[in-house]
Design brief:
The chain is mostly helical. 40% of the residues lie in helices and 5% in strands. Strand 1 and strand 2 form a beta hairpin. The two termini are 31 Å apart.
Length: 157
């Protein structure tokens, strides 16, 4: 299904948006990219960002749009070793003081909420990822399954 065919708020699990176009098992496609990555002398750093996280009242925690450059700036600073990151069960996340919020109507408390890692949310996410992986059968790359197991263990699940 095309992204525009999905109901608003629906998560589309489709890495690289290739499922509708890939003429072979996606597990083989994932394996291809894992092999390519192993061949790189200096593989790129990978960061995940959830621009659409909401608070209890349904308001977006991050202002979005042009303000996203602030997060991209942190990513650049991180890659260049100018800022540290906090270890969490899902990996490294920014320290609030390293995100420039000058001029935003966002205090430290709101930023901490945006950066918070809630294990119960991530356990649900891990369960959905496992279900997604199951679509591809025995050909699913072992490396991805191991990473998922590592995540589940870190989350206490």
């Amino acid at each position: 299904a095309a992204a525009q065919d999905l109901k608003t708020g629906t998560i589309r699990r489709d890495p690289f948006a290739m499922i509708p176009f890939c003429g072979y098992n996606m597990a083989d496609y994932f394996g291809h990219w894992l092999r390519i990555g192993k061949q790189l002398k200096n593989p790129p750093k990978i960061f995940a960002v959830n621009w659409f996280r909401k608070d209890e009242e349904g308001r977006y925690l991050w202002p979005g749009f042009g303000e996203n450059i602030r997060i991209l700036r942190w990513i650049i600073d991180r890659v260049k070793g100018r800022v540290k990151a906090k270890e969490t069960p899902i990996g490294l996340v920014p320290y609030p003081e390293d995100i420039n919020t000058e001029g935003l109507q966002m205090g430290r408390r709101e930023l901490e909420k945006a950066l918070e890692v809630k294990p119960e949310e991530w356990r649900r996410e891990a369960s959905e990822i496992r279900e997604f992986f199951s679509r591809f059968g025995q050909r699913m790359p072992e490396e991805l399954l191991q990473e998922l197991e590592k995540l589940e263990k870190a989350l206490g699940g």
